[in-house]
Amino acid sequence: MTLINKCSFRLASGLLLSAMAVSAGASEITGYAEGAQVMRVEKTQGRVDALNDIVYSQVKSATDVRQLHMSLLVPRNNKLKPAIVYFPGGGFTSASWHKYIAMRMALANAGFVVASAEYRTVPDTFPAPVVDGKASVRYLREHAAEYGIDPKRIGVLGDSAGGYLAQMVALTGGEKRFEQGDYLTQSSAVQAAATLYGISDLRNIGEGFPEVVQNVHRSPAVTEALLVNGTAFRDFPGAAIGSDEKKALAASPMGHLSGKKPPFLIVHGSADTLVSPLQSQQLYNALKKAGDRADYVILAGAEHGDDTWYQTPVIERVVNWFKATLGDPQNAPAAPGAAKDKNANL
After folding, report:
1. Could you read off the pLDDT of 131-150 as tens digits, one per residue?
2. C-alpha span between 26 and 20 (Å, rounded)
3. Cα–Cα distance for residue pair 301/233, rounded to 1 Å
4. Which spans in 96-159 are helix H?
5. pLDDT by residue (tens digit) across 231-251?
6. Cβ neighbours of residue 94 under 8 Å, at least 6 residues apart?
7. What is the second-level CATH architecture of the domain 48-326?
8. pTM to 2 decimal places
């Protein structure tokens, strides 16, 4: 027998013995049948429950009551978990709270309770979105025990207009004029904020862009102008965002930088043609100048909300930053006499 044949024989014999050993072990498994494939899986991932379309706030107007919704992803364990409120983008005209499931699931799988909250958009005007964003944080604190949330560790996350809102919620802690609605005994302060291609100054969203684009942002019909000044009606012709610089700055994150701020993660694409990357640059520089903690990431070649933002390295960067900033879930003792959930394994 040649050396090659001997090696082949030994390899075949080894595989045969391994197969026999596996087969012998498999035959002892309840329900086994010849030809069945047996898998042995290491448990490294827990379950996440989805709680959809929760009404977190009711906003009253002269004619009706509007319900504002959020959806929750809740890791199923008895640990005390940090929480993240995600605010979706939509150009101040929509706030679909079912978006960005890839990011939200990654955060939930990392142990965070993740809320995705809608908020009022144009034709509603400032400060309506900020009022709603802060109400969503208060809701989570009010129901922290129900969802296993550590009320001392809540962060916010948003993209585009949602990034604007995440910034505003994080930067206006303690500003009472934004505290309206329910659960007013709860704080709306947050301990971390991540903004993805967000808006930091409504006065110059198109800064650095071609003049034709900047002219669009000078129109009274552009969404940031509608958010701050409202829509044209009767004897009001509408007003451009630059018509009242002080008012526009007060409605912008850059107008709320005094005092100590929570840690920020700021991420922007270098090829963004909708929201100028200079928006994130100026926010980062202002926070650093004030001595606040801020991490700034530029995604080379990334456009506004393109597929780059759904890639694993980008999502992991955000998740890992929140883990480092807010910490991991902590063991929480079960309530005395608490019964085991009969639906736990359903």
Report:
1. 999 999 999 999 999 999 99
2. 10
3. 41
4. 101-109, 128-142, 144-147
5. 988 889 899 999 999 999 999
6. 121
7. 3-Layer(aba) Sandwich (3.40)
8. 0.89
